[in-house]
From TrEMBL, chains A, B:
GO terms for biological process: regulation of DNA-templated transcription. This is Two-component system, OmpR family, KDP operon response regulator KdpE. Keywords: DNA-binding, Phosphoprotein. It comes from the Bacteria.
Length: 235, 235
DNA sequence: ACCCGGCGTAAAAGTTTCGTAAAAACCGCA
DNA sequence: TGCGGTTTTTACGAAACTTTTACGCCGGGT
């Protein structure tokens, strides 16, 4: 339930508009980030990796079309343009530049929310083609949400999968036990380290990994765990 | 998909509007089909299999929402609603019912064309394979809208078919319960998870699938469902 | 050797999610 | 208006998952 929240980035120079949008969207359960300029927006787009972007075309520091192109370049999130300008040329240009939708101010918040749902819905199918991660004889396919061993699908529980997927996101790197607990269970469970031990135990059984000589999930005593990919020998 | 020209179906009862759209779209290289009523439109949607549908909500013979739902269930083509009504509720209802966009008459043809390009662009990734999908002794033909078991056609209710078709669009891939509820029932029903359980139960009976050892519809407890294709054996 | 803290495993108890049946409400259609 | 098929409500037993509880292991420090 921690990664389930949809993240929306608002790029608008008017504080009042941002405030209005933030409150409206937050009440719908979305997580919000804000940027007040084009440059800041582009930076945040690559740092927070939002699921959707609301962009005001009338920014002071950059041309709207430029912002749109930059955003389109560096993150795959759909962009909904929000603008005061009614001009048809403006709309056509924005839509052809990659915008998913174009809403004219003043707009009804309910319509905007519906259009956000449409954009998210349309984008859900077009989710990227990430290549499966291979570790030993284990394949981890984050797109299909499937883990297989020698071609045969393994059945993992939600938490087991979440754990493995988290390690797979940063292959070879150590992930702190604390960090794992916070990300998988929530900040309250920061100190329930035995949850991890039990989870890892079951997981290693399913993956056919020996804790004495791990070839997949390696324990870093006192620190956390790491997923070994390709050739990694204990230092 | 035999031709590479993009096929657009126009559903509108006003002859003049159809004529205007036909000429405008034809000049852009689109191939056009026309329907003057909801019923005719739904029929044509499954016979000509358009790449996109332009739908007027103010049809004389059927409620616009009904047409929208029917279209959404039987062909994957994006629907752009064209309507004289400005009402926000109307827009929200149409968008949540599956419409890809909502354009208010009178509209600029250039904007409409841009929005058509957006819809086609967004939809390009979600191409479904036109060859029937085989899972065990079940054949799922998304083109003919037919599901058969050992050659014999099964009778599925609209929702049952919609569910199965959605799984078949991403074979082997897991689909979240939340996503299924939103796509089949609408965003409001996001939490009615028991709808899915009942639907799946009936569906498995009809398909002859045992939930304990599923060979077709596999449950991922806490996550969602997936259609098993090829060789997958339950542990 | 001894104690001790971090780790791994196993089996239980507890909680959530799933599957199924049957009844009630709904809806297009004659 | 009543009818047949479909969807939604309601209810409960079964299964899956998580958390608790308990115990054995290994290595380092004293």
């Amino acid at each position: 339930m921690t990664t389930d929240t949809t993240h929306i980035l608002i790029i608008d120079d008017e504080r009042e508009i941002r405030r209005f949008l933030r409150i409206s969207l937050h009440s719908q359960g979305f997580e919000i980030s804000e940027a007040a300029s084009g440059r800041e927006g582009i930076e945040m787009a690559q740092s927070v990796l939002p699921d959707l972007i609301l962009l005001d075309l009338g920014l002071p520091d950059m041309d709207g079309q430029e912002v749109l192109k930059s955003l389109h370049w560096q993150c795959r999130a759909p962009v909904i343009v929000v603008s005061v300008r009614e001009g048809e040329e403006e709309k056509v240009a924005a839509l052809d530049a990659g915008a998913a939708d174009y809403v004219t101010k003043p707009f009804g918040i309910r319509e905007l929310l519906a259009r956000i749902r449409v954009a998210l819905r349309a984008h859900a199918g077009a989710e990227t083609s990430l290549t499966p991660i291979r570790a030993g004889d284990i394949d981890i396919d984050l797109v299909q949400r499937r883990v297989s061993r020698g071609g045969e699908t393994l059945h993992l529980t939600p938490r087991e999968y979440a754990f493995l997927a988290r390690l797979a996101q940063t292959p070879g790197q150590i992930v702190t036990g604390r960090q794992l607990l916070i990300e998988l269970w929530g900040p309250v469970f920061e100190h329930n380290t035995h949850y991890l031990r039990i989870l890892v135990s079951r997981l290693r059984q399913k993956l056919g990994d020996d804790p004495r000589t791990p070839s997949l999930i390696q324990t870093e005593a006192g620190i956390g765990y790491r997923l070994m990919v390709e050739s990694d020998t204990a230092p």
